[in-house]
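agent> Task received from the user: take the single chain below, predict its 3D structure, and emit structure tokens. No templates, no multimer pairing.
agent> Plan: (1) validate residues, (2) run structure prediction, (3) serialize to tokens, (4) report one or two observations.
agent> Step 1 OK, no nonstandard residues flagged.
tool_call: predict_structure(input=
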Amino acid sequence: MILMNQPVKKSPPFSINGLYAVTPDEFGTDLLCKQVEAAIRGGAKLVQYRNKMADANLRLRQASALLALCRSFGVPLVINDHLDLCAKIDADGLHLGMTDCDLGAARRLLGDDKIIGASCYNQLDLAVRAEQAGASYVAFGACFGSGTKPNATQTPLSIFTEAKQKIAIPLVAIGGITLENASSVLQAGADAIAVVGALFNASDTAETSLQFTHLF
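)
tool_result: status=success, residues=216
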């Protein structure tokens, strides 16, 4: 429940639910776009551009190409970490970690109509503060052992049930989510599941995306 003395925030233009496709560290822009298109055709509702290996020039090329692709399908593109890139290409949103820029400052710069997500790891109090600062959603994880972040602290699934009692914005689960364990995350209360490896390392990304989508 949001307290009465908290500011009323405008709802984002896109709903935060379903399969949230998070891109792998891929240098080939054409291949990356092909993979993301397959994920969208399978039912992904959101896409996050995340490439920790790319330099600024490659990030700009890839993010611009993905934005055009996502716009053609009516799917929002969220930029991981880089506020400047998000603002430059007018992407649909930004995802911030604990050590990235201030969420409140990002909200003031981007405006009320952009999606802003916050990684809250296994910290419910961080999620409460993120909502108060203007987050559109919060993400908890790693829910399971993660190949993308092998050293990430594992988060108990009970945090989703607890979070439902304290915050009103959507909850995203991330970290080691597969077709075999995704149902347990949804049963715990997650509104969306963010997937990297199990989606983009699959032999058929579109079919795997469809299977994830059917879980909802």
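agent> Step 4: summary for the user.
The chain has one domain: 18-214.
agent> Done.
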